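Predict structure. Chain length: 440.
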Amino acid sequence: MNTQDLETRFKEENDPFRLVIVCAMWITGFDVPSLSTLYLDKPLKSHTLMQAIARANRINEGKNNGLIVDYIETYTALLDALAIYGTGDQASGKGNEEKERPPLEPNSELLLLLEEALSVTEAFLLDEVNYDLYELINTTDGLLKLVAIERALNAVYTNDETKRKFQVLAREVFRKYKALQPHKLLNAFRPRRDAINVIYTAIDDNVESADVAEIMKKIQAVVDESIENIVSEPDEDEGKIIDLSGLNFELLEQYFNKLQHKNMAVQSLKDKVEHRLKQMIDRNPLTIDYYQRYQQIIDAYNLGKDEAVIRETFRKLVELVNAYTHEEAETKREGLTDEQKAIFDILRHGKQLEEKDKKAIKKIAIDLLEDLKQEKLKIEQWAEKSVTAAAVFNTVNKTLFEALPYPTYQTDDIDLKTNLVYEHLKTRYWGGGASIYGAY
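Prediction complete.
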């Protein structure tokens, strides 16, 4: 450890070096905003004590409070220090007009703040989404508790705004609760805090697991018919690929109409659709029209809360999925991969093409990408190296100038398409044979 820069390591939030025992150094004049806990087992007083307390009292993102663990009753010495250093401007006669506020909140005040955070969250659930948290708190039977959680989730999922508001309120409860640990009175607040945490955790879990695949399983139980799994196995060089093309939407809608908690079904489908659309845009920026259509559907959904709006949202999401499933089918019909189709779409966007020109542009997309991937795009961090970046740009420009059909494409068109293709390559091909589409 003597050979390491411990000061720099301790200031780095992600470094595993988290605990340090000090005698004199680092007690004063050592600024680590992320430092949250200070253990005192050394007599300190006056200015040194004020400085030491301030080590844990710096504002930092995600930090609610500093915790001082005092083994030797330093609080009395702190009040003495405040009498000297915290009395204001006595010379101007202003020092005694207002009593200095201590830098530490008494536990009684923190308990009131926790009670307030819990009450606000409970009132939101009851008044805005019509759910009584005590239904969940007072239910102990395992199966009934699952039903209570499902009702709570359906209420919170009234729309995107209610979901976000609940998450904000819940996080405030968690911060206030943590600030009081390990206070013995926390046991009185635990059931309410735990019930809020169950709902909050279920929302997070839904993003990953309670998606349309879960609805599929329920459909299978209702109609006794096999439906393809919504998530295909990832390739070695790619993350999880979401495939919606195997959905039987008629069966999905039949099940949806039988559901008691339709908000949860819409939220599940919505999350999956949004995830898939973001994947599509990352791989092909010209598919952004689908995301704009999705956003219009969700904006309308968030304005209404009755069942008719919920049913219409579900129907429109299904239609949107069908539309971009056709887009993916077209890619296959064109005989193109996703990455080739992205270049093809950039080149043909804004043009009315005859079949002959369309075939020519398809060949340009395939040949240009293959040429660049052979060498130039394999160079590590090619876009950061001026010579390689210029070579890629020039290759794109030269290819388009020589191959794009004239007069359909004029000089201005070629300049525009060159820049668009180059920017696409720069953001999706990172060099070293790695890209958003996988290894090459």
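Summary: The CA atoms of residues 181 and 240 lie 39 Å apart.
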